[in-house]
Amino acid sequence: MECLSPLVLTEDQQQKVREVFLDEMRLGLAANPERTSSLLMENTFIPELPDGTENGEYLALDLGGTHFRVIYVRMKNGRFSEEVVDYFHVPSEKRLGPGQDLFEFLADCIAEFVQKRNLGGRNFQLGFTFSFPMTQKSLDVGILVSWTKSFNCPGVVGEDAVKMLNDAIHKRKDLDITVKAILNDTTGTLVMGAYMDKRCALAMILGTGCNGCYIEKVERIEKWLGKHLESEMIVDIEWGAFGDNGVLDFIKTDWDRAVDDQSLLVHSYTFEKYFAGKYLGDLYREILLTLTKKGLMCGGKIGNLHTHGAITTTSVSRIESDTFKGLLEETKMVLNDVKLNHDDDDLHIAQYVAGIISYRGITLVSLITGILLERMQRNHCTVAIDGSLFKHHPRFRPLMEKLISEFAPGRSFDLRLAHDGSGKGAALAAAIAERLEQKRSLTNSN
Ligand code: BGC
After folding, report:
1. I need a surface site. Which of 10, 165, 248, 427 has the fewest CB within 10 A?
2. Residues classed as catalytic
């Protein structure tokens, strides 16, 4: 327990995380910040949510992980009446090779989908979920700030992902598609959350990566210069990068440093690396490696623990399920898989470690959620959440409910799984974009 104590957040540390997050938010929204914030606080150019008037056919794309999805939806009076989805595996040479190849691959997938589903011969409005940090100049321009997770294609950072997609689409000559909106998966989840429940004002992804967005008052987005008619706007926080400027180093452990050193994009996405699905398994493995090397478990034998990726986040979730149910079976299997000899004490230690790192991650995300609920001051806020960590880790939902209530006392909220926000949410965003365009042309003609 002494060895693991750096993973336990003290009350003082929790308070400091709160203060630092609030300050980074302020800096991220400021017109002339005195230093650069680690939070992008990006204007998504989505000032409205679904209002029940959405009609017609839309295409949506969802890129963010190893599976790319192409989606067709039909909407009738604001409800989804038909939905078709195809998955395409994105091989590592596309995720790490030249950006142009990646976008041409995406266009090939769209063409295959359109052909297979007999959707050729008509124009489609498309919403593109691109789950990476972007700066947006409008709803259909998204400049990539940096790659994250398992992507690192040269030639895309600093470029507009919509333009690159359009170039690839036009090169093929057999697709008639207008990209109406580019959005982050959290934004899609908020839009989808609002489709399910109008009181939704905050959304997050707790999956391979981690991020959140919320509805902000336009007057507080100081960096958005000029006069604006909109009163509210979805802001993509990009909280995965929280702490990249060192402000969160006071909770960083040697294990976090080890995880970062072995990651694809070192010294970036500090907060995400503390607990997101891409990293939690490795964090766990690094800790067990220390404990075995110190002779504190498994007779001091390290098995395969030195192998990066040998324990996945799914395994951590399985161990946590065991703890939850008072069992040891899954835990045994995970330790056997990495060739660790174990007795019952070792299994309990393994469960304790899984619990402690999960609790740290859940505390961090709950602290931030509490801050946002306080900031928005809604009578009730539905929080839309998607992502494998939230879906499969048995403790995220119950502990988040408990901790958020403690961190934002008296605030009414509920956590709602918004399945497929990044897919259907993109189609809804395309419909919203169309509506905004119509409104604008009406105002102009008047
Ligand atoms: C990306 C975010 C995204 C999150 C969840 C992060 O790595 O930077 O844009 O929302 O993953 O997919």
Report:
1. 10
2. 69, 131, 185
